[in-house]
Amino acid sequence: MPKKAKKIEDLLFKPETFWERASQQEIHLAMDFCDDYKQFLNEVKTERQVIIESIKLAKKEGFKEVSLDQDLGKNRKLIFVNRAKALVMVDLGEHNLNNGVKILLAHVDAPHLDLKVRPLYEDSGIAYFKPHYYGGIKKYHWPTTPLAMSGTVVLKNGQEIEINIGSKKDESVFLISDLLPHLEKERLDKPFDKAIEAEELNIIVGSIPVTGKKTQDRVKLAVLAWLYEHYRIKEVDLLAADIRFVPAYEARDIGLDKSMIGGYGQDDRVCVYTTLRAFLASKNQGVKVLYLADKEEIGSVGTTGAESLWLENVMDYLLKQTKSSISLYDLFRKSWAISADVTAAFDPDYKSAYDKNNSAELGKGAVIEKYLGYKGKYMTVDAEPKYLRHLMDLFDKKRVVWQTGHLGKVDQGGGSTIAVYLANRNLEVVDLGVPLLNMHAPYELSSKADVYSTYKGYRVFLEG
Ligand code: MN
Ligand code: MN
């Protein structure tokens, strides 16, 4: 029998903003939550710092670091760390793994400038570090952006040195110079992507030469003398070091109404922070897992990327230690996951790059992304209709403000997320995250409404 709708307007899907839908009390909660988030952004500028800070927050909630080489004992709240760049947190509650687990996965890395193997040189009285950029940057963003230096150096005696310069107000920052507009004629004839070449992104680190020496490169020598004096580092030690430069900007409120946040590395630290808080706050309905992986921006490869078999290693350990009776394959098959990553918010200044109807908008909440990929859905994970239905209904029931999104127009570009690497393990997975303006720029913009709504979405997923 055909059935007519009672109210035809109800047939429409019309996402509204969080600001219109949430109670005053919830808006306050969102603002407070985002104050903590800004603080987190200011503490963490590198992958390693994200891991350290996340462990610190988890330990306050009773989590303990566990080694795969030791027995679990009575521990139920566990942290596994891989090479200080990736971690898995597990809250077993009172369960074994026979019914599968719920996984939140976010990535800790963000576009930045790594140093080349032999980075230090001098030219015309200025000492430079030569970088190799990491991830998808727009090169013209980086000259004249104040930079902080952060890294790990292992000395010959085995001592590990941590370097952090430029994130505190009284410390020096570093800079890549740009050409003045008066002399730019030659550059203006170049195509946009060639206007600034990778090899022109050189970081200024000093300009006072050593005195009393007849050698060349006396400024370079002075920089080495400084590094040795402060960190016992010689030039050869830089070869094996892991040193990177990141924007030194502080995370701040944006707008007269303070409704937004500007900060570096929000892709994907906004999802790191919101998944972490959701993971720590949620009540156990089963085994929950938080996986923070590295190397997403360069393809999720390597030991600490989401493709790494380290996840299998941890899960295999847990199956044995909890005396679960299912196989690793069955564990993945029975598990559910959210790939927690940011997406593009519709930008009214660049309308032609987006399909407005299929784009996320700032302030309209957590973004469910059914699929990503590019061209003919290349590298796409298509979330299953049943799983999507489940999440949409759950969010509506728990009053999570949500919307849908997609990365721009078809054939305009596109992208993929770490959802792929979970889906390849035969897990049910969907992308849920925060929409950003100017993603991958040194200073990215998010809406507090979306940050809070996404946190709530992750929490509801773990509890639902
Ligand atoms: Mn991302
Ligand atoms: Mn990214």
Automatic annotation (TrEMBL):
Keyword Nucleotide-binding on entry: no
Annotated EC: 3.4.11.-
Molecular function GO labels: aminopeptidase activity; metallopeptidase activity; zinc ion binding
GO BP: proteolysis
GO annotations of cellular component type: cytoplasm
Family the entry assigns: Belongs to the peptidase M18 family.
Record-given protein name: M18 family aminopeptidase
Organism: Candidatus Kuenenbacteria bacterium RIFCSPHIGHO2_02_FULL_39_13
